[in-house]
Amino acid sequence: MRRYRWSLFPQRMDEALEAAEALGISTTLAQCLLNRGIEQPDAMSSFISPSLKRLADPFRIVDMELMVDLLLKARENGESLVIFGDYDADGVTATTLLLESLTAFGWKVNYYLPHRLDEGYGLSLDSVKNCVHQFNPDILLAVDCGSTAVDTIKWLKDQGISTLVLDHHQISIPKPPATALVNPLSQIKNNGHDTELCSVGLAFKLAHAILKRGRQTGMPGAYHYDIRKFLDLVAIGTIADLVPLTGENRILVNAGLARLEKTRRTGLLALKKVAAVSNPIGSFEVGFQLAPRLNAAGRLQSATKALELLTAEDTKTAEIIALDLDAQNRERRKIEDNIAHQVIESVRSRLKKHKDLVIVEGGLYWHIGVVGIVAARVVREFYRPVILVGGDTNEWRGSGRSIDGFDLADALRHCNDLLIQHGGHAMAAGLSLHPDNLPALRRRLNNLAAQKLPPDKLRPILNIDAEISLPELTLDAVEELNLLNPTGQHNPTIQLVVKNVSLQRPPEFFGKQKQHSRLWITDGSTTQEAIAWRMSGRKPPSGRFDLAFSPKINNFKGKQTVQLQATDWQNSMTTH
User: Distance between alpha carbon 417 and the CA centroid of its chain, in Å?
Assistant: First the structure.
C-alpha cells in the first residue's frame, strides 16, 4: 500500500519551455517554479536569486513608524525598557537581536523570558507581574507574544507602563490596548509585504527601521552600523518557527544561512560544534540540529540559557552552555520518546478511523514542554489533528498540531467555553483547560472535524513536481534544482518520479534496527542509488514500480554522486 495519495502537478510544458529559454534554466526547474505559484520570469529570477536589496521598506508595516517614534522618544527621555520575549527559538533569537541592537544605540535595556512551567504561555499576568517586580520598566516591549493579552496589557497600562507588541500570532478581538502593535496579521500598507514574517524577522525589520531613521537624523554610530550581522539569528528563528520560506522570509533565510556558515558569534560556534554541524548549512541542519538545542532550554527549564549562549563573548563560557543545552536536548528526547510511546500505543489500540478524526489526549505529569513535539509525531503516525495536554493541577496545558484542511486555532475558538486560554495558528496552537473538560473538548473537536475532514483528507498528499528519467539525473541537473533551496513551508522539497523501473539487485538494510534500506534502481540501462529512510515496516518494491523521490547530492570521501531520497513507491500499473 502506498503511504501517500500521489498528485502529479499539471505539466505546463509550453510555459515551462518559455521560462526556461528566457532564464537559461532547465524545463524541470521551470516546472517546479510554476508548481510553487511563481509564474512570471522576473518572479522566477528573483526566487532563484534572492537578494537583500529586494527587502521592502520596514516602515510599510502598520505601526512600525509609531513604534520607532516611541522608542526614540523613550531613549531621549532616558526611560527604561524591558524586552519581554518568548521561550522558543523564534522568541529567543528575536530578543537577542533587539537586546544587542538597542543597547548599541544607547537604550537602557533589560530582558525577561518567562518560565514555561511556572508562568505559562505568552504574556501571562503572572509572568508580567514578576517582570515588573524585577525591573520596574517604563516601557515593556513584548516580542513573539502579546497579540491576545488584553487583560495583561490593561494591567500594565494601569501601572503606568506603556506596552509595545512585536508579534506574528493571531490578534484577539478586541485588540489588546497596546501603545503600538506591529504584527503582520494587521493590515499591511500598500498590500502584501511582510505578511508571513515571524518575530525574529520583525525584530530585524524593527532594527532596520531604527537604523534607517538614525541615519536620516544623524544618530551617532548609525551610518557604520551593520545589521546584517544578525542574519544568522534570523535564519535560525525563521526556520525553527516553521513560517513560509517565501517572499521576505526566503530572502532573509538565504542570506542568513550564508552568514551562519561564516558566523563569528561565539555562542553559535559552540552550538555548531556540540551539534556536529559543518558547512554547508541548510534548513535541515538548522531545523533538526541547532534549533532543537536552543528550544530544549525553554522546554525543560528556562530559555535564559539559550539567550546567554547567543550573547556569550567568552569561548569557554559558550562551550559550557552549549554542552548544557545538548544535555537538556538529550533529556528532552528521552521524555518525548516516553510520552510518544504511551500516546501512540494507546491511540493505536482503540482508534476508530472513521470516527476519531481528531486525537485529544491528556496525561497526568506529562511534561508540557515537550507535548507539542510529541503531537507532531502523533500527527505523522496517524495523519489527523492532535492535541496533547498534561499537568498535575486543576489546569492542564498543552499543544496541538494539525493537518491541511483543519484550522486548529479557529476550531479552538469554537471551544472557548471549555478552555482557560488558547491561541496559535491554523497548523499549531497552545491551550489550557480543566482536565474534566477534556472529554467534552474531544467530542466538540471531532464534531467540527466531521464537517471539515472527509475521509480522503486523512491520508497525506504527495505533490509530485515532475516525471523524470534516470539518465536526466546528472550532478549538474541536481545542482541546478538546488537553486530552490532553502526549502521549507510553502516551498517544499522537490519531489520527482521515475516510472517503470525495477531493482537492479536486492536491497541492503542498515541502521541499528535495520530500519533504513539502500535500493539500486534501474531502467535497464542506467542505475541510481536510492535511500529509503525509516521504512522498516514496509516491504521493498518488487517487479516494475514507480518511485517518488527527492534528488540529492551525496558527498562521500570527496566524491559527489547523485542519490535519490525515496519518499514512496507504487506498482507501475497503478494510476495516479
Answer: 30
- Is the omega angle on the peptide bond into residue 174 within 30 degrees of 0, that is, cis? yes
Q: Around 278, how many Cα atoms within 13 Å sit in the side-chain half-sphere? A: 2
Q: Is 169 exposed, middle or buried (0-12, 13-18, 19+ CB in 10 A)?
A: buried
Q: Cell 516602515 maps to which residue?
A: 59
Amino acid of residue 389: V
Helix, strand or coil, per DSSP, at residue 387? strand
Q: How far is CA 139 from CA 43, 64, 91, 313, in A?
A: 41, 16, 18, 28
In the 8-state DSSP scheme, what is residue 36?
Answer: T
Measure the CA–CA gap between 180 and 163, rounded to whole angstroms.
7
> Hey, what amino acid is at 238?
T
Output the CA–CA distances (angstroms, integers) from residue 65 to 56, 256, 425, in the order listed: 14, 25, 26
pLDDT in tens, 30-55: 999 999 999 999 999 999 999 999 99
Grid coordinates representing 382 are 496517524
- Give 188's pLDDT tier (boundaries 50, 70, 90): low
**What three-state secondary structure class fits 569?**
strand
CB neighbour class for 565 (10 Å; exposed up to 12, middle 13-18, buried from 19): middle
Specify the pairing of strand 80-84 against strand 139-143: parallel
**For 514, what's the count of Cα atoms within 13 Å in the CB-facing half-sphere?**
7
Local structure of residue 176 (DSSP, 8 states): P
Tell whether the model's pLDDT for residue 1 goes beyond 50.
Answer: no
Q: Which residues, in sequence order, are CB contacts of 24 under 8 Å at separation 6+?
A: none
103 neighbors 81 (Cβ within 8 angstroms) = no
Query: How many angstroms separate the CA atoms of 149 and 422, rounded?
Result: 11
- How confident is the model over 290-346, as pLDDT tens digits? 999 999 988 887 899 999 999 999 999 999 999 999 999 999 999 999 999 999 999
How would you label 387-418 residue by residue, b for 16+ Cβ within 10 Å and e otherwise?
Answer: bbbbbeeeebbbbbbbbeebbbbebbeebeeb
Ranges of beta strands (E only) in 18-106 are 80-84
